[in-house]
C-alpha cells in the first residue's frame, strides 16, 4: 500500500446541488459541477487527488463518512445547513478520525445568527467561509500541509 497521503474526499450536503440557481450574492454563479472542476484542478496543482460526494439526504452523508476509512486521507466538507445542527454528521465525522476542513461559500459569520453555529467546527482543522470557490483551494492547502507533516 502507498504511504503517500493525497486522497481528498470533497463532500457537499443539502441544497448545494442547487448552486447556480441559489442567491448569487451569497453563493456566486457556478454550478456544483463547475465548482467541482475548479476544486479538482486546484487539488491537482497541490499534488492531491479528489473524489466527490454530494447528497440531499443526511443519512447518505453519514453513511459515506462511515465508509471513508481506507478510501480517503482527508476531507473537505460543506454540509450546507446541516453544518448548523446535525449532531449525526458531527458524530460520523468524528468516527473517521481524518483531518477535515469545513468550507462555506458564503460569509456565514455575517448572515443570520443561526448560521454562525457549527456543530462540526471543533473537529475540523479550519473553517473557511465567505471566500467563494477560493475557499476550497485554501482548505486543500491546509490538508496538504497536514498530510505531509
Ligand atoms: C453554506 C452556508 C449554509 O448556511 C447554507 O445553509 C448553505 C450553504 C455555504 O456554502 O455558504 O446551504 O454552507
Can you give a write-up of this model?
The chain is of the alpha/beta class and 149 residues long. It is 36% helix and 20% strand. It contains five helices and five strands. A five-stranded parallel sheet has the order 2-1-3-4-5, with helices on both faces. Helix 3 (58-67) runs parallel beside helix 4. The chain is globular and about 45 Å long. It starts with 6 loop residues before the first strand and ends with a helix. Bound molecules: 1,3,4-trihydroxy-5-OXO-cyclohexanecarboxylic acid. 1,3,4-trihydroxy-5-OXO-cyclohexanecarboxylic acid binds next to strand 3.
How would you summarize what this structure contains?
The protein has 149 residues and is α/β, with parallel strands linked by helices. The chain has helices at residues 24-27, 32-45, 58-67, 87-96, 134-148; strands spanning 7-14, 49-54, 74-80, 100-104, 126-129. It has a five-stranded parallel sheet with strand order 2-1-3-4-5, with helices on both faces.
Amino acid at each position: 500500500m502507498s504511504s503517500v497521503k493525497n486522497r481528498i474526499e470533497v463532500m457537499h450536503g443539502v441544497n448545494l446541488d442547487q448552486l447556480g440557481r441559489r442567491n448569487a450574492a451569497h453563493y456566486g454563479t457556478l454550478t456544483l459541477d463547475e465548482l467541482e472542476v475548479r476544486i479538482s484542478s486546484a487539488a491537482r496543482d497541490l499534488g492531491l487527488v479528489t473524489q466527490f460526494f454530494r447528497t440531499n439526504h443526511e443519512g447518505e452523508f453519514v453513511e459515506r463518512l462511515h465508509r471513508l476509512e481506507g478510501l480517503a486521507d482527508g476531507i473537505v466538507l460543506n454540509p450546507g445547513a446541516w453544518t448548523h445542527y446535525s449532531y449525526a454528521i458531527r458524530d460520523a465525522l468524528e468516527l473517521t478520525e481524518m483531518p477535515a476542513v469545513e468550507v462555506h461559500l458564503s460569509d456565514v459569520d455575517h448572515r443570520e445568527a443561526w448560521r454562525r453555529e457549527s456543530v462540526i467546527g471543533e473537529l475540523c482543522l479550519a473553517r473557511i467561509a465567505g471566500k467563494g470557490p477560493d475557499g476550497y483551494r485554501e482548505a486543500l492547502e491546509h490538508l496538504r500541509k497536514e498530510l505531509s507533516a
